[in-house]
Amino acid sequence: MSMVHVSARVNGDAVEFLCDSRETLLDVLRDRLALTGAKEGCGTGDCGACSVIFNGRLVASCLVLGAEAEGAEIETVEGMADGEKLHPLQQKIIEHAALQCGICTPGILIAARALLAKNPDPNEKEIRYWLAGNLCRCTGYDKIIRAIQDAAAEMREEA
Amino acid sequence: MAKVKVHLWSALRAHAGGAEAVEVEARNIGQMLDALRARYPGLAPALDAGVSVSIDGRIIAASLTEPVAPGQEIYLMQRLKGG
Amino acid sequence: MALDEGKDVKGGHDAREYDHEGEFRHVGTRPDRPDGVDKVTGRARFGADAYAPGMLHAAILRSPHAHARILKIDTSRAEALEGVKAVVTRADFASGLEGEDWNILENIMAGEKALYDGHAIAAVAATSKFIARDALELIEVEYEILPHVTDVDEAMQPGAPVIREGAAEPGVPEGMHPNVVRYHESGHGDVEAGFAEADLVIERHFTTEATHQGYIEPHACLAQMGPDGRGELWCTTQGHWNVQKLCAKLLGVEASAIRVTASEIGGGFGGKTTVFIEPVAMALARKTGRPVKLVMSREEVFRASGPTSSASMDVRIGMKKDGTMTAAEGTFRLQGGAFPYAPMEFTAMCAFACYDLKHVRQRGFDVMTNRPKQAAYRAPGSPMAAFAVESVVDELCQKLGLDPIEVRLKNAAREGTRASYGPTYPRIGLVETLEAARAHPHYCAPLGPNQGRGVSCGFWFNFGGETSVTLALSMDGTAQIAVGTPDIGGSRASMALMAAEELGIPYEDVRVTIADTASLGYNEISHGSRVTYASGLAVIKAARDAKRKLIARAADKWGIDPEAVEWRDGAAHPAGENAGDFEPLSIKEICAEMGATGGPIAGHYEATPEGAGVSFATHIVDAELDPETGKTTILRYTVVQDAGKAVHPSYVEGQFQGGAAQGIGWALNEEYIYGEDGRLQNPGFLDYRIPVASDLPMIDTVIVEVPNPGHPYGVRGVGETSICPPLAAVANAVSNAAGLRLRQLPMRPARILEALEAKADGEG
Ligand code: FES
Ligand code: FES
What we know:
- The complex is a heterotrimer of chains A (159), B (83) and C (764).
- Chain A folds into two domains: 3-78, Ubiquitin-like (UB roll), CATH 3.10.20.30; 88-158, [2Fe-2S]-binding domain (DNA polymerase, domain 1).
- Chain A is 34% helix and 17% strand.
- Chain A has helices at residues 25-32, 88-95, 105-118, 124-130, 142-158, and strands spanning 3-10, 13-20, 51-54, 57-60, 73-75.
- In chain A, helix 2 (88-95) crosses helix 5.
- Chain C is globular, with a radius of gyration of 27 Å.
- Chain C starts with 35 loop residues before the first helix and ends with a helix.
- In chain C, the strands form six sheets. In chain C, strands 3-5-1-12-9-10-11 form a seven-stranded mixed sheet. A five-stranded mixed sheet of chain C has the order 7-15-14-13-8.
- In chain C, a hairpin with a 5-residue loop joins strand 17 and strand 18.
- The longest helix of chain C is centred in the C-terminal third of the chain and has 28 residues, at 531-558.
- Chain C folds into three domains: 7-30 and 464-607, Aldehyde oxidase/xanthine dehydrogenase, molybdopterin binding domain (Aldehyde Oxidoreductase, domain 4), CATH 3.30.365; 51-146 and 228-269 and 277-289, Alpha-Beta Complex (Aldehyde Oxidoreductase, domain 3), CATH 3.90.1170; 310-462 and 613-763, 2-Layer Sandwich (Aldehyde Oxidoreductase, domain 4).
- Residues 40-43, 45-50, 60, 62 of chain A line the site of one FE2/S2 (inorganic) cluster (FES).
């Protein structure tokens, strides 16, 4: 079994790892880099729990191979807060009780941040369609939508 | 000891001579179930599989020490479990 | 607030636990949950987030056949693969188990037969995930394929393949197929006489498909077991004491030999109330002497954890022209996989529980098929019953030209009603939910073309169960609570609110931890909506126990009787002028010197609270039907439910919304599809489609509060009832939108189109 050597940047830090050619980026983040914030809900690209930003694009990290990460810039939920200060989306998700079990939360946060980067003022429908790849089985999405809208409003004010 | 009247769910009735309710002497649920087993051995498997008891509309899922008294409305129910 | 005078909770439980007076200070507010930051930063550790030095990875070989005799398993080639450390089969587990323990063992590792597609046959531990998976392909299994059956009605037919001879319990009517293993019958009155009084009697047949709880986190665990026979287990579960008990039995060791720690749990909804992979990981750990991590794939979750039962049901209801229900009768057949205990008695008992009926009878059949062992799913058994019953009630209302809420109000169960399942109801809140639904603006909002409105009620029992809680006070007067019920949906916040309420201290001064099995007495699983009720009651009682001790310290210090001291605003005060003139002693002051005044202060509660109290809900939904595609869109949804007392209203609303969303999925899309070959056709989220954000509207909620007499603050369980009404509510909305009634779930577009065509043909 041949191992691949990869160098990349995760949340701004340079990382290097060896991985099996079959390993996904999600496996690498979790098993090799100890970044377990991204979750595996399906491994087939259907649930969004593994969402990360890969070279500026929102991807399901279970569908990316670890070996493909050579030279990539990767952002995960662990990099969202600025030191002690939570990202407004993180803050609003807590305030709105927009999580119950919280397993979908990292993926939703990453996806929502990608949405707000493109569209700082999304309406309900836009949020719902953007998040259609992020399954949440607990909340019925209602409070998640509200939290994202509230965070977006706050971010617009700050900007 | 005082007699209490216990209502049975219908699958149990065949083991108690067809009666919808039977009277046994008991001061608490544990004694009541023991008395039922002693009087109607055919009930034992169902009782051992687990029962809940409704006393005056309050459902006792597990407790054997819950007191019972004459005049109370007592129903046996299959053991309750949730999700 | 009145202090609980050290009443012996073990003997008689007081039905009247409710003792709250005055305003709540913390309960009913919406603070941030204590674990919020962990959950939004990725720091929270779920089942698959644990690693150990020297850890092996495990994988499970599963049967591709629905029903087959296992003639031979040859593991030698797998064992010879470099990196493979152990292979286990059924021979590595305890023998001589009986009853449900045997069923559970048989389900997690097949014995003589593979009983369903996905049934575990063997498991491997190896130095990497890939080696473990490769090794599975080297295990040779010789099967003798047997005829199979996956449908509940077919499994009852003469000539259907027998899943297990002699599994039927006493009480099953004579002449039934051996796959019918249990029978339930209950009710009262004379239903035929009741039907004779009716102006209209409707009898209909309904079916629902098996659905999966669909928690996003697959089952996962990390097991260790040393040569001394002592082990540690980390796993995602709704009840780690139950996991401990079952692992011990299945491995043939004592319970105390295994310490189980519950990880954060990524959803359960009943599906994590039992074991699937945990004993397998323990057996591999025992055999290798190394930590073993085992994580299910999503496909395995679908094929081999516990979905709910599918159901075949007949319901007959009689009604007078004025809407009075005169009699009701139902037959409910549930398959629960290749094992007994499909929750058919709950289906039967819940079916007519919303109504005050003089004549009612319900029967249930528990049927075995070649499917995975069903597990509990949110109000197990009740949603399908509500689907059938509430659909018939709706049809009666349509035919008699009556308002569906008025009719339900007219027949609603209330305090003093004899429940359809026997006993007489104490204080319940169904009428209040119906009145609130009638008054809600949603109920009279205008509808457009192809749109319809549906209403439905739902009922669920709630449970208490074994509960242990410790509340330890720190030197600085803050409180640390250890509870044994995993926090699935924000319960830590509710626990902290209740402790803050009792002790009169800030919410932030309470820290709630989920303790492991070595640190507390037994705790029943987080199921039956019991957490906020039972652990909450336990927290209140433990806080009161601590408060008694705090009062005693103040009394000692002042040299007066404890009876002359009262607790208020987080401090001991002399009770009235006669008690003496002392400055209040705050919790901080008492705790600062506790070492010198008698030692550490902690409150405890260990008991089985039994006053959970049943709960009811009424839902309203608007749906639009696209006549071209048959697609149903949910336009608006309102949940009205009795919570007794909402401790943290945001999380109560969340439970209402989550249950409604799951129910909508059950109604419209979700189903286990088995092929002719008995294999599950859709074991993934692509083909087993749970509602996504763009499928749903905002879900409005109304919290009704009719205090539960069995809880000090009046709390009722809220987690489950919300999934009961949606199936029927959506079906009723579809019926009102398109004039066609679907009695088979799910109402997928193809089915609706077919019904539309049939209707057009009928009219044409
Ligand atoms: S784990 Fe990647 S999408 Fe589900
Ligand atoms: S909060 Fe549990 S899946 Fe979203």
